[in-house]
């Protein structure tokens, strides 16, 4: 079993990896992703191209014995979130996808890494999931970890997007460490990249519309993946404003081309009734969805991170399901600090708590 004496060995495993946004954030912080898993064939080419040194296991996690997974320093990942989503049926742990959280815990218990990080949607905090959430926390603890969780907004961690997600961080119980999210806020909040102009201004004149039936332009884009979905807008989409200004952060990047935010070149939409908006007919610039590359920039992927797809809807899904790279990086740096400087962290936490009590 690994101990803190093996801190120079930062090999970690990624579960429910998607295209690897969280993985890239941890890699930037000095961790090495040695093994990853996702059974969604739509992401395989994208993941393998951008993470060529990582072994990608393509099997359903439910059939993978823990012994097939290498020993590792840490485990990261975001189990499927649809069953917890506020926009979905919210069946939570009763849904087969919600139960995949238990597969994550199974592997944690068997592998006993020094730490884990799990990410999921804010809907998990809905009151109807209270019992299930407590059961998950209990399962983490029974697996041998001291766990804490908090709702974070990616915009506070150098991501030009309002994106609220619940983050679980746990350390193996024998380390006697418990992650303090107040300490994370104090030490790792960065707001340098906090609006759309900083993120995508230079891309405003070069995007291409998709081909018929939202097929990719592929090699004709000036910048890879810089193409946007075409087609009608649903009544649900038109139920509220979908335009943020250049000086604001983006709305949450969704895993759907139909629900991609509108480019900030256009005027904000006009409310004409309950849950009913229209496009401003006086807008100087036309309304169009953000391109896939613009969404990737807002998710803080670098431009050399390439997305492979034939239909743009698959591309938007790949990008929208990812953890923003910069959020992953901030969390990775914080976790690494906990493991490399535990004494200093404890003193920092005590000083912070004293300050909070005095105020």
TrEMBL record:
Assigned protein family: Belongs to the class I-like SAM-binding methyltransferase superfamily. C5-methyltransferase family.
Instruction: Write down the superkingdom of origin.
Output: Bacteria
Q: Which organism is it from?
A: Stanieria cyanosphaera (strain ATCC 29371 / PCC 7437)
Instruction: List, from the UniProt record, the residues annotated as the active site of this protein.
Output: 81
Q: Which InterPro entries did the record assign? A: C5-Methyltransferase (IPR050390), C5_MeTfrase (IPR001525), C5_meth_CS (IPR031303), SAM-dependent_MTases_sf (IPR029063)
This protein is called DNA (cytosine-5-)-methyltransferase
Which UniProt keywords are listed? Answer: Methyltransferase, Restriction system, S-adenosyl-L-methionine, Transferase
Please name the taxonomic classification of the source: Bacteria, Bacillati, Cyanobacteriota, Cyanophyceae, Pleurocapsales
Which biological process terms from the Gene Ontology are attached to this UniProt entry?
A: DNA restriction-modification system; methylation; negative regulation of gene expression via chromosomal CpG island methylation
Example of a GO MF term: DNA binding
Q: State which Enzyme Commission number(s) the record gives.
A: 2.1.1.37
